[in-house]
Structure formats: structure tokens, C-alpha cells
């Protein structure tokens, strides 16, 4: 048996991190036809990760238990398991102790986080983030949000910023990260196109503007009490 050594990629949660995921190489997973772009990783065979996973057509992953939970957003294609078929735009949350056997007929790509959930958070979530009727207005004109889940001070949200909108500076007692799904956004530190992942540590973050409009998957508060 091959020994798995701990791997650390952007593992220091006290540090800001920016990753252009489209520039990362596709790394083969242990399963044929399944590849990964590693954004964040802390651990060995079982690790706390944020990663993009690509399934080639007719590929599958063997049945496995999520000892630390799993959440993912389908970026393209249709992801399937014994619970159903999940097309692009579907947000799925499988709690600690859940089990499934993923597969795809035509291929798909997902953005996934593993080992980030607490054991008491036992809610299954399946949401179609393409359903515009689910979105609510924020206090900032032109910016809408869809709350996906919240637990223990951490929240997951889809944020839609219209062309030319600006999200004000915000206090982050539990940190923040976002992944740019479409369009682009920027702040005083840089410009973030589709595929960019940005983590801001506990403290505060400056404004976030979007001259062309964008859609973000945003998590806040999760760095204050990360699972061990």
C-alpha cells in the first residue's frame, strides 16, 4: 500500500490566499477518469480540502463515507449518485457520516469542499441556484443573494452583483472566501476573473466591485471555528 504523506496547499487559515484555478494542472485522482485542481489542502489521505473535480464521461467514484462532510456546486455537466441527478448550478451538502457513490454519464465538473463540516451539522441540502425566484435583495442596490446554508456562525451564499455594483467594506469575525463563478470582480488588491478563489482571514475586507457583473459562491464565518 502506498503511504499518503500530509500535503499543505494554502493551509494556513490566518493568511490571505488567491488562486487562479484555471491555471492549475489537472492532477489524476485515485479513480480512473477523475481529475482534480487543488486549491486548498491540509492533510494526508483524509484532508480538509477545497478543490475542483472533473469527471470524464462514464466515470465514477467508488462508494465512500464523508467522515468530515462534503459540499459541492456543480459547475458544468450532470453529477449523479444514488440520490439523484444534479445538473449545473446545483448546490449539494452531504453531512458528516453520509455515504454515496458518485458517477456521471456525460461528464461533469464540481467545486467541492471536504472535511469542513461539524458533526452536529446533519442537514442535507440540495438547491438549484439557477432559480432566480430564490434570490433576495441585499441592502446594496443591484446585489442579490441566495442563502444556501448556515451553521455555527458560518454561512454559504450565492451572491449576484449587477454591472457596476460595489459591495462595501465588511468586518469578518470568522473570515471569508469566495469563488468567482461567472464574470469578474475586483478590490484594492487585484482583479478576480471567473475561476478565481480568494480567502480573506479573520479581520476585515475592503470593498468588492464588479464593473462587468459577476456571480460568486461565498462562505463567511467558517475560519473562526474550523473542524479539527
What would you note in describing this structure?
By secondary structure, the protein is an all-beta fold. The chain is built from no helices and 23 strands. It has strands at residues 7-9, 17-20, 27-28, 34-43, 47-55, 64-65, 70-81, 84-87, 90-94, 99-100, 108-114, 125-128, 136-137, 143-151, 154-161, 165-167, 170-172, 176-187, 190-193, 196-200, 203-205, 208-210, 214-220. Strands 1, 3, 4, 5, 7, 8, 9, 11 and 12 form a nine-stranded antiparallel β-sheet that branches. Strands 2, 13, 14, 15, 18, 19, 20 and 23 form an eight-stranded antiparallel β-sheet that branches. The protein has a two-stranded antiparallel ribbon with strand order 6-10. Strand 7 and strand 8 form a beta hairpin. The chain starts with 6 loop residues before the first strand and ends in an 8-residue tail after the last strand.
> Based on the structure, what is the oligomeric state of the protein chains?
single chain
CATH architecture field of the largest domain: Sandwich
> Would you tell me the structural class of the helices and strands?
mainly beta
Overall, the morphology is globular
CATH superfamily of the largest domain: Jelly Rolls
Number of domains: 2
Task: Work out the strand percent.
Answer: over 45%
What is the level 1 CATH name of the largest domain? Mainly Beta
N-to-C CA distance: 26 Å
Name the average pLDDT: 93
Low-confidence parts? none
Element-by-element helix/strand order: EEEEEEEEEEEEEEEEEEEEEEE
Continuous helix count = 0
Q: What is the percent of helical residues?
A: under 10%
Largest sheet: 9 strands, antiparallel
The tally of strands reads 23
CA-based gyration radius: 17 Å
CATH topology of the largest domain: Jelly Rolls
